[in-house]
Amino acid sequence: MTAYIASMVLVVLAEMGDKTQLLAMAFATRFRWQTVMWGIFAATLCNHLFAVLAGHYLTMVIPLGYIKITAAASFILFGLWTLRGDSLDNEDKRFNFNPFWTVAVAFFFAEMGDKTQLATVALATKYSNIVHIWLGTTTGMLIADAIGIIVGIVLGKNIPERFVKWFAATIFIIFGILGLYDALPGHILTLPVLVSSAVVLFFLILLAIRLNRKGTKKTSVSDPSQE
After folding, report:
1. Which of 71, 85, 172, 226 is most buried (CB neighbours < 10 A)?
2. Chain-wide mean pLDDT for the chain?
């Protein structure tokens, strides 16, 4: 029980203000809170079990830098996807698992190399009870991210939809940029590369906004209630 409580408390403290807690807040503005919680639960179970069993051997198989680069790039893609927009009103009925998998995959990648995953690995070296550590760290993640979800729901009810969309997209893109800056080798981050990347990202954002506007116009034309 000591391992369980220690794991839970440590992860709650580590998760407060962490990127995955902010992700929970952002996802809560887009999806049903139940879907977000189940996605976090599934991703955390898989990720922290992986961390407990083999986290400290990961860099022997796949360099951690590659994992961080992939995770950072995925955040930028999630940000662009958010700006492009989704038809979420009937998403639960048409595609039952799409929002769930969106949350689960995002959280799984976000946790790779994150401090809560590294804390889980450290706990596994200190305590011998793998199950208690696994369940304790998972419980801690759910508690901390539930706080983010509550904040996200409050924001979603009181802030215009357009602002919420930009808020969520900005979080994803910022984390992606910071993650790439941290993970990429220094010799790659030259001024021409940074400027070129900024220009490409700018045009991708414009493209996502344009696709969103086209989708909105198409929906308005096809929806009889708008006529």
Report:
1. 172
2. 76
